[in-house]
Amino acid sequence: MYIQNVTFRQKKRLWDNLELVKNTFGDGLWCVIGDFNVVGSPGERRGVNVEVSPGMVLEMNSFNSFLVEVELLDLFPLGRDYTWYHPNGRVMNHIDRALVLEGWISCWGSTSLWVLPRSISDHCPLILKSSDLDWGQKPFRFNNYWLENRKFKKLVEEAWRGQRGEGWMGVVLKNKLKGLKEVIREWSRKEYGDVTSKVDNLMVEIAELDVIGERGSLSGVEVERKKKFEEMWRLLRSRDASLFQRSKSKWLKEGDANSKYFHIVGVIKISNF
User: Fold this and answer.
1) Is residue 56 predicted with pLDDT exceeding 50?
2) Structural domains of the chain in order of their starting residue, each with its CATH number
């Protein structure tokens, strides 16, 4: 939810409409999160020239009455006390919040609201966490770009031959596949994990070799630089292939994966959710 800096009457109309929706459709699993552009108490504001005016008292009372009537719980923020900061840094408010019904807590368990550090925005990002749910291990996904790695075939063959099993062949096959999956998962984590950091480090190393080549002998520099470029392109190709495979796109050919494009698609999907 995003509420612009509108008049009190407009905010009151929104509270009334939400209350009408609640009374019409029942409880359900409500979770309303975003910028409400209102504080619930004087303690949620801090800075110079933030005296509590009669209009602010009216707005706070209206918002708190809305929470009581709709039976919404205002989750206590963790990490930071305030979520919005004026560009001059002299005024800060707690106006971004998460409101939930008891049905949400019953379904998703104990829920906490964390306020994360902000970057260039004047608002802090919020993250909602459920401490009672265990989603288990991340599902295994076979990545096609593994097949281009020269080490992959040997890894699979050695891992498969290294496993022994007894009993019904169906059980043996299942256990060997399970063991192979863990071997591949660990190998992929070491080989491709944290691609961004690896690429950044390689770029720094290549830049250092460029400087050495400019100021001294080229002996050995070109060979080392070529190896690092090959490693960097291998990592970039693996990242792009992974993006392509996840996109399930039918109108792009492999190699045309564009991380900016897929990021925009992801943003659009989230905004339409």
Assistant:
1) yes
2) 8-130 (3.60.10.10), 144-271 (no CATH)
